[in-house]
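User: Predict the complex.
Assistant: Input components as received:
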Amino acid sequence: MGQSSDGGVRILAPDGTIEDREAREALDLKDEDLRQIYRFMVVTRKVDLESTALQRQGELAVYPPLIGQEAAQIGSGYALGDDDFVFPSYREVGVAVARGIDLVDYMHFHRGTWHGGIPDPVGKRFGMISVPVGSQPLHAVGWAMGAKLDGKTACAIAYFGDGASSEGDVHEAMNFAGAFGAPVVFFCQNNGWAISVPIERQTAGEIYRRAEGYGFPGVRVDGNDVLAVYRATREAAERARTESTPTLIEAITYRMGPHSTADDRTRYQPEQQIEEWGLRDPIDRYRRFLDTEDVADASFYQEVEEEGKARAAEVRKGIAGAPPRPVEDLFKWVYTGDELPPHLARQRDEALSMLEEDEDA
Amino acid sequence: MGQSSDGGVRILAPDGTIEDREAREALDLKDEDLRQIYRFMVVTRKVDLESTALQRQGELAVYPPLIGQEAAQIGSGYALGDDDFVFPSYREVGVAVARGIDLVDYMHFHRGTWHGGIPDPVGKRFGMISVPVGSQPLHAVGWAMGAKLDGKTACAIAYFGDGASSEGDVHEAMNFAGAFGAPVVFFCQNNGWAISVPIERQTAGEIYRRAEGYGFPGVRVDGNDVLAVYRATREAAERARTESTPTLIEAITYRMGPHSTADDRTRYQPEQQIEEWGLRDPIDRYRRFLDTEDVADASFYQEVEEEGKARAAEVRKGIAGAPPRPVEDLFKWVYTGDELPPHLARQRDEALSMLEEDEDA
Amino acid sequence: MPEVTMGQALTQALRYSLEEDDRVLILGEDVGKLGGVFRITDGLQAEFGEERVFDTPLAEAAIAGVSLGLTMAGWRPVAEMQFDAFSYPALDQVISHMAKWRYRSAGTLSVPVVIRIPEGGGIGAAEHHSESPETYYAHTSGLKVVVPSTALDAFTLLVRSIQDPDPVIFMEPKSRYWSKESGDLSPDGLPIGAARVMREGTHATLIAWGAMVQRGLEAAEAAEEDSVSVEVVDLRTLVPPDLETLAASVRKTGRAIVVHEAPMILGYGAEVVARLMEDAFEYLEAPVLRVTGWDTPYPPATLEEHYLPNVDRILGALERVLTY
Amino acid sequence: MPEVTMGQALTQALRYSLEEDDRVLILGEDVGKLGGVFRITDGLQAEFGEERVFDTPLAEAAIAGVSLGLTMAGWRPVAEMQFDAFSYPALDQVISHMAKWRYRSAGTLSVPVVIRIPEGGGIGAAEHHSESPETYYAHTSGLKVVVPSTALDAFTLLVRSIQDPDPVIFMEPKSRYWSKESGDLSPDGLPIGAARVMREGTHATLIAWGAMVQRGLEAAEAAEEDSVSVEVVDLRTLVPPDLETLAASVRKTGRAIVVHEAPMILGYGAEVVARLMEDAFEYLEAPVLRVTGWDTPYPPATLEEHYLPNVDRILGALERVLTY
Ligand SMILES: Cc1ncc(C[n+]2csc(CCOP(=O)(O)OP(=O)(O)O)c2C)c(N)n1
Ligand SMILES: Cc1ncc(C[n+]2csc(CCOP(=O)(O)OP(=O)(O)O)c2C)c(N)n1
Ligand SMILES: [Mg+2]
Ligand SMILES: [Mg+2]
C-alpha cells in the first residue's frame, strides 16, 4: 500500500483515484462487496444526521455524531467475520450498521430509555456501549482470551479514540493482549480531537507506535480511505485468529461534527481545519473510486439514497416518542432472579406505591 | 557504547574489562568519583544484607532486598544533581545511599515505626516510599511539571520495576511527561521478576521501546554495569533539564534475593538462573575494572570494607529495639493543625483513655 | 443586590483564588479553551495563561497523581474531574496517596489539592454522568469532603477549599449550577466543617446537602401548609462532620430524616443516622429515616425522576416520623 | 472430625469449584506457581493446568476488566487481588462495569465473577496491606459483598460465591487465614444473604463480620464472666443485608454494638446502625454503638494494636450500652 506522509497507508488517493493499484487488485472484495460498503456508508451518514436532528427535536437526550468517520467504521466493520466480536465506545453507529445491529435498539441508549447498549450483546457480537473512555478494550481482551481458551477462531475488535489512548486501561489491555497472545484488534479512530483537546496535546507520540512496546504490530492507516481500512483490519483480524497476534490500527480521520450535540466546538475547533477535512470526505472519495471502477450506476446510487432515507426514517419511527420503561424495571436487573433481596424489595414497593399515589392524585 | 545482544548498552564487559573504551574515556568521572561509586555499592550491599538479617531477627517487619541491583541504583543515583528529585519504589536503598539519605530514618519504614518514608521528602529530594506498584511515576511527572513552571533546571527520576511497567499509571505518567515536556527520567529496573512472574509473562514487548510511543527516547542499558548506567542516566537527566525531554531507561539486572523476606522463591525462581546471574555480580565486575584502572589500592578496599560494616552497624544500632511512636501520633497528621476536628478528637481521647486503663491495670 | 448562578459563583471563586495566590493552578480535561463542559473554568485560561490553567491528556489517575507531584513543587492544584463517574479511575491515587500523604509523611508533606467533581443527577444525562460518589471519598480518612448547596456558599466553600492545606474533594451538585442567589460573594463565610440551618423549625429536622437541600426546602414549605414546622440543615461538609449542629437540631425537634441522591446502603445518610443514634438517642421520638436513591445503578434519564428523592417521598418520610 | 484452617478451606473451595464446573478459571498476580502470597491457590495450577489457573501481568484494572470479558465468552473467573489496597486500581472497572453490566444490559448479560480480596489488619504488614475496603464495594449497587469469619463457613461461602450468577466481592479476613475449625466442608451451608447467630445471648447483641467475629466472641466470653449474656451475630454477607436476623436479635436484646476494623465514618457499622434505627427503634434501650478503626489512615504495624478494636474497647462499649 502507499504511505502518505503522516496520514497512514492508503489505497485510494484523497481524490478517489487509485494510488496503490497492486493493493487494490489484491483486495478480496467483489463488486457486490464494493457496493455494499458504499451502501453502509451512506446509510450510516443518513442515520447519523437523522440522529442529530432527533436530538435537536428532543427525541434523543444527547447524540455523538460520527460524521466524517464513516470509512473508518464501515471499512473495519465490514472486514470482520460473523463470529468476531465488536467492543464499541459510544460513537460506533457506523460499525453497528456494518454489523447489522438493529438501530432502534441502539438508539434507545441515546434516548435514555435504557443504558448500556443493545439487548443480547453476546448473541449479537456487539458489546456494551462504553462511555467511560478507554474502559472497553479490556473487555475485548478478556473475551478474546476466553475464545482462545475454547479453541475458537474468532477475534475481538476494540474501538476507541485518540483521547482514550491516554487512559491506563488501554495500556493494560494492550499489554495483556500481547502477553497472552489474545486475538484482538485494537482499532483507534484518531479523529484529531478528544472533545476540545487536539491530538498534539494528547500525546507527543504516534499512537500506532505504542504497539512496538507490547511486541505486536502497529499500523497507521488513512482512516478516510475505506479500502485501506478494510484491508488493514482484514489482515489484523486474520493475524489475530490464526496467529493469536494482536494488532493496533490507528486510523487517521476527523471528527466533522461536534463532540456531541451538547458541545460548542466553535470555542476550540479551527474553522479552517474543518473546511480542509471537509474536502476529504470519505464517502465522496469512495464514490469517485466506484465511478472509475464502473461497479455502480445511477440507479444504484438512487436506490442507496432511498435506502439511506428509509433506514433513517425507520430509526425516527422506532425511537420518536418511545415511552419510558415501566418503573419496576428500575429494580429488575440489579441481581439475577425474580425475587428481589429484602432491602431492594422494600424500595421497589415504595417506588410502586408512589406511582399509585400519583395515579390516585 | 557497546550493545550486548539483549542486555543493553555497556561500557564494561561482564568480566570488568573495558568493552567500549571511547565511552569510558568520555565519562566525566574523576578517580575520586570512581572510588566513591565503589564505596556506595559496597555500603549498599552491606546495609542490604544487614537489613535482611535484622528482619530475620525480628527487628524489621519485612524487607525487600536489592542485592544484585547495586549498579543500577548507584549508577543512576550518582548521576543526579543536588536539585534533582528521586521518586523511589520500595527497593531503593541503594539510591538512598547514593543520595546521602539517613538510613535509620529510612529503615523505620521497614520496621513499621511509621509509614511513607523519610521525614521531609521535599527537603531531601527523596519522595515517599511507594508500595502501590507503579503509582509514583505520576508524582515524579507532577513535580517535574511544577519545577519547569518555576523555571528550575532540575529533573525528577522515577524508579519502578518490570512488573510496574504493566500498570496503567506508568503509561499515563509517560504520556503526560511527553505531552508536557516534563523533565523526568523514567528508570525501570528490569530485574527479571515481579514476585513470581518472570518478565516473559509480564509483557511480550521490550520495556524501553515503550518510549517510542510517547515520543521520547528509550534506552536499554546493562543494569549491572555501573558505568553504563551512570552514563545513560547522566545523559537522560541532562536532556530532561536542558531540553525538557523525558527518557525511559530500562536497566537489565537481576533480583539476586527473594522478592522480600516474606517470599519463598524456591517455588518459582530457577536455581540455575540465580547461579548464572551470580557470576555477573555488579560489584565484582566494577572492582575488576577499578583494579585495571589502578585508581584504588588495597588500603582503599580495606577502608571501604570497614566503612560498609560501620554503616551497617549504625543502621542496626539505630533501628534495633527502636520503640513504637506514642499512641497520640495516630491522630496527629490526618489533617493540618494542632486542633483535631471533633470526630477525631473523640477518638483520640478514647484511644488515650484506653492506654490509661492499661496502665492502671 | 447582584444575582449569580452557582456556576458563575464557582468561576468567580476560581478567578479569586488564581488572583490571590499565584501558586494556584487549574488542570483537567477541557478546562482550557472550552472552559469545561459546564463552563466553570470559562475564560480563565485566557485571563491567567496556559501555564496556570491547562488541559491535560485524558487520564484521571494522572490528573490526581500529577496534582500530588505538583504540591511537592509548591503548587496548589485545583483539578477538575469531568463528571462524577469519571473520578473513579483516580480513586487509587486519591485513596492510597492523596488522602494519606500528610499522615504517611508524619506531617512533613502538605497536600493542598482540590478535586472538583460535578455530581448528581436530574439533568437528563447519559449513563455514568449522574452519580453521587461522596461515600467513596467520605469513607477515606484524610480527605475533606465539601458540597455546596447554593451559589453564594459555593463561592465561600470553594475559596476556602483552595486555601485549605489538606486535600479537599469538592462536589458540585450539577443540577444546581443554574440556580441563582442574590448577595455579595464573600471568602469569609462559614468555614469548612460547619453545617448551617437553612430554615428553622420545631417539629422535625431534615438533613441534606448539595442539590437535596433545595428539594428539602421545597418539602419544608409544602409541610408548612399543613402547619408542620421543619428545620432544614445543610451539612455543607461531610468530612469533617459538624456533629454539634446536627445533634443540636435533632435534640430540639426530636425527629429527623436525611435525604440524599446516592443509594441508601452506606450513603452518607447512614453516617448521619449513626451519629444521631449516638448523640441524640434520648431525644429521639421516632427513628431517623433515610430518603435516598435506590440501591440500584443510577437509572437511565427517562426514569431518573422515579429514582431521585422527590417532594412526595420526602413528605411521606416526614409524615412517618411525625406520626410515629 | 477433620480440622482445617481458613486458608486450607478456601483452597479446597477453589479446588471443588474448579472440579465441579469446568468453566471456572482462576487468575491474578502470583496465583500460579507461587500459589498466591497467602498460598490460597497453592497447587491448583499444577492440578488444573496453566489454562485454568494463570498468573497475570501486574495490573489490577486489567484483572477486573479482563474477567468481565471472560464472562462474555462463557467463563466464570475467580480473580485474586493480592491485598486490600491493591484492589483500588480496579475500582473503576468494578463500579462502572462489573456492578452494572447485568442492569445496564437489561438482564441480558450475566456476570459470574468473584473477586477475592485478602483484607484487614493485625498481621504486622507494611502499609497498604491492612485495609478493610468493604464500604467501597458495599455502597456500589449491583455487587454482592461476602466476608467469612470461620474456616468451614469460608468454604461454603466461597463455593456459593463462585456459583452465584452475580458479581461477588469476596473479602478474606487475612488475620484469620490460620484459624482452625473442625468439621466437614460442605457446599450446602447457609446461603449468601443470611447472617448467623454465633452465640446466643439476652443482654446485648454484638454484630460483626470477618476477623471481628472472633474478637467479638472473645469479648462475649469475657462479659460472661461478669454474668453478661451477649449474642454475637456474624453478618457473613454485607450486601444483600440480612435485615431480618439483625433486627430479630436486637428486638430481643434491646441493646447492640457493631464492631469493625474499617474507619468509623461510613464503615459498614453505619449501615447496621441505620437499619436498626429503622427496624428496631422501639425495642432499643440504648443507642447502638460502633467500635471501629479510627478515622485515620491505617497505622504502621507497630501501632496497629492501638487502632484495631480490641476486647477492652468492645467491653467498654458493651458496658456503655448496658448501663445506659
Ligand atoms: C473516563 C472518562 N473520562 C472522561 C470522560 C468524558 N469524555 C467523554 S468523551 C471524551 C473525549 C474522548 O475522546 P476520544 O477518545 O478521542 O474519542 P472521540 O470522542 O473523539 O470519539 C471525554 C473526555 C469519559 N466519558 N470517561
Ligand atoms: C498496585 C499493587 N499491586 C500489587 C502489589 C503487590 N506487589 C508488591 S511488589 C510486586 C511485584 C513488583 O514487581 P516489579 O515492579 O518488577 O518490582 P520488583 O519487586 O521486582 O522490584 C507486587 C505484585 C502492590 N504492592 N501494588
Ligand atoms: Mg477523538
Ligand atoms: Mg521486578
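The first strand of chain B starts at residue 2 and ends at 3.
Let me know if you want any component modeled separately.
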